[in-house]
């Protein structure tokens, strides 16, 4: 009986932690009404979690004309690892363009169980587009409209997904050769799991991406999952033990620490001349603030230029766990920090 309960808990816990494909869940980004949720209709998105905010003029002005955005499809960068789940995946993305010849590009990466149409990263992307940037928003594998793996339809907190981000980078370089005319022409933005994924892609590419704005990035994956389970009132040691027992039955790299761990790889491969902005909220229950605090300290030790901003808002709705909501309760400040960071570190021709 004990082993049956333990095994069942492992299966349930693994699925709950790593599920990604919204088709399996029956709702979410897979079945999204894209005639409504697209860059032209951003002012109609509404504020997640029912934030009690007065309408911001910033949100009202975030509509992107239909002629300035489109859907594109490209392959992920080939994963040559012998233990790769899928070597290449088909990735769907939204492109917001202003002046593709002169403006830099920013790659904007969504979080777990999100997609390119999610309000975050869509709202930050539109803020950047309004400031004159080109932006590409990919659906990570097993999310949104991108290919779902028949071998492993789960999230891996950047381990597999960063190849999709690097595929977006390859697509931009192939489509807009002038991006390579000078350095500092491509930046990256990521939120939550997308922040960890963006960090990993940023670490693996030192040639083109010079600036990364990471909003509540999940850099310490194991510690973040452990803290999440504790926050829910369960025994983290017991549940993680059960999930660990289940994980190898699905795939050998099915539980962190992963082969490519975001903070480990970031700390070893990001140094002098590269710029990282870390945003976190002190009350965040999903990706605790220690991700940015520890990450910033480690990056500075390795010579990176790091800027941090730790917001606090104890009165915001607790049922969203204060996660990834800085752009909603401080939109003016958020936009200023986001745009200023890329203005300082990316180059317009």
Task: Explain this structure.
There is one protein chain. With 349 residues, this protein is an alpha/beta fold. It has one domain: Alpha/Beta hydrolase fold, catalytic domain (Rossmann fold). Helix content is 37%, strand content 15%. It has twelve helices and eight strands. The protein has an eight-stranded mixed beta sheet, sandwiched between helices. β7 (275-281), α10 and β8 (305-311) form a beta-alpha-beta unit. α1 crosses α8 (236-250) and α7 crosses α8.
Can you identify the CATH superfamily?
Answer: Alpha/Beta hydrolase fold, catalytic domain
Number of domains: 1
The CATH architecture designation is 3-Layer(aba) Sandwich
Give the uncertain stretches in residue-range form: none
CATH first level: which class? Alpha Beta
**Widest β-sheet, arrangement of strands:** 1-2-4-3-5-6-7-8
Radius of gyration: 19 Å
Total strands = 8
Strand content: 5-15%
Question: Distance between termini?
Answer: 67 Å
Characterize the biggest β-sheet.
Answer: 8 strands, mixed
The helix-strand sequence is: HHHEEEHEHEHEHHHEHEHH
Enumerate how many helices there are, as a single number. 12
What percent of residues adopt helix (DSSP H or I)?
25-40%
What is the residue-mean pLDDT, rounded to a whole number? 88
Task: Kindly identify the CATH topology.
Answer: Rossmann fold
Q: Report the structural category.
A: alpha/beta
| Shape summary | globular
Brief summary:
With 349 residues, the chain is of the alpha/beta class. 37% of the residues lie in helices and 15% in strands.
């Amino acid at each position: 009986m004990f082993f049956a309960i333990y095994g069942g808990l492992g299966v349930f816990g693994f699925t709950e932690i790593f599920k990604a494909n919204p088709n399996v869940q029956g709702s979410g980004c897979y079945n999204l009404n894209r005639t409504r949720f697209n860059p032209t209709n951003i002012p109609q998105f509404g504020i997640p979690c029912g934030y009690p905010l007065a309408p911001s003029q910033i949100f009202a002005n975030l509509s992107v004309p239909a002629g300035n955005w489109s859907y594109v499809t490209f392959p992920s960068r080939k994963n040559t690892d012998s233990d790769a789940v899928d070597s290449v995946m088909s990735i769907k993305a939204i492109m917001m363009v202003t002046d593709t010849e002169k403006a830099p590009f920013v790659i904007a990466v969504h979080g777990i169980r999100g997609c390119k149409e999610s309000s975050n990263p869509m709202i930050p992307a539109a803020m950047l587009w309004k400031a004159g940037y080109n932006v590409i928003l990919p659906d990570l594998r097993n999310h949104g409209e991108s290919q779902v793996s028949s071998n492993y339809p789960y999230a891996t907190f950047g381990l597999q997904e960063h190849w999709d981000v690097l595929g977006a980078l390859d697509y931009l370089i192939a489509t807009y050769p002038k991006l390579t005319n000078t350095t500092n022409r491509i930046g990256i933005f990521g939120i939550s799991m997308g922040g960890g994924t963006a960090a990993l892609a940023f670490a693996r590419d030192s040639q083109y991406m010079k600036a990364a704005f990471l909003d509540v990035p999940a850099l310490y994956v194991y510690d973040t999952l452990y803290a999440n389970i504790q926050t829910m009132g369960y025994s983290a040691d017991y549940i993680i033990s059960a999930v660990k027992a289940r994980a190898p039955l699905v795939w050998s790299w099915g539980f962190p620490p992963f082969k490519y761990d975001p903070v480990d790889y970031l700390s070893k491969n990001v140094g002098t001349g590269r710029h990282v902005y870390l945003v976190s909220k002190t009350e965040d229950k999903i990706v605790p603030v220690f991700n940015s605090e520890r990450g910033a300290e480690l990056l500075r030790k390795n010579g990176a230029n790091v800027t941090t901003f730790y917001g606090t808002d104890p009165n915001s709705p607790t049922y969203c766990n204060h996660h990834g909501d800085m752009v909603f309760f401080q939109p003016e400040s958020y936009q200023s920090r986001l745009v200023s960071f890329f203005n300082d570190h990316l180059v317009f021709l």
